[in-house]
Write a structure and sequence with these properties.
Elements (H helix, E strand, L loop, with lengths): L12 E4 L8 H7 L2 E7 L2 E7 L2 E6 L2 E9 L3 H8 L2 E6 L5 H9 L7 H5 L3 E5 L2 E4 L4 E12 L12 H5 L6 E14 L1
Antiparallel strand pairs: 1-10, 2-3, 2-6, 4-5, 5-10, 6-9, 7-8, 9-10
Length: about 180
């Protein structure tokens, strides 16, 4: 079954200083969602995410993302040094739902959604339909595990990892932010 294509509505972008970003990170990630997007061997793949964070670590502006070991996009993020976080307008909610529920192993999600791939830098893809793009360079990755949960979080592994499909935590420096004009 083919998913309907998004209406082409590509944006032009301006690089903005991170200090001028005026977005609520809880809404941006938890409610608006984002597409974690990466490239491997000339192929782009993405997945929808609603878990993550923005902040400062090691005196760097960083984004944290979490990808389950089973996700196809993890292979793409692991293969390179960079990835992007694409925040889309609400009109793309159905496409975001699709990208979070289908695997790029089984089909071409870019073709199915009609998104337009652009590149911020060599091998660093993003979507021209995005309203905001975080261009990120990986600094750290670590698999989560049951032993690292505190007493207050001891019930979380049973709730979120009963199938043993743990997330890998990635910390990435935000190299630039592109904002749609």
């Amino acid at each position: 079954m083919k998913y309907h294509k998004a209406m082409s509505n590509t944006n032009t972008f301006t690089s903005i200083d991170i200090e001028t970003l005026n977005e609520n990170p809880f809404k941006l990630i938890g409610k608006d969602w984002m597409l974690i997007t990466a490239e491997k061997d000339g192929r782009t793949n993405m997945m929808t995410a609603s878990w993550g964070g923005l902040g400062v670590l090691w005196n760097k502006n960083v984004a944290t993302i979490y990808i389950r070991k089973s996700r196809f996009t993890k292979e793409f993020v692991d293969d390179g040094d960079t990835f992007t976080l694409c925040v889309m307008d609400e009109k793309y909610r159905k496409e975001l739902g699709y990208c979070g529920s289908k695997s790029g192993r089984d089909e071409d999600k870019i073709k199915a959604t009609g998104f337009t791939v652009e590149h911020a830098d060599k091998n660093c893809p993003y979507f021209a339909e995005a309203r905001l793009v975080f261009v990120c360079k990986k600094l750290y990755a670590q698999e989560m595990n049951a032993d690292s949960f505190t007493n207050a979080g001891k019930d979380l592994p049973a709730k979120f990892y009963a199938d043993n499909d743990w997330h890998v935590l990635y910390v990435a420096e935000i190299e630039k932010i592109l904002k749609a004009n």
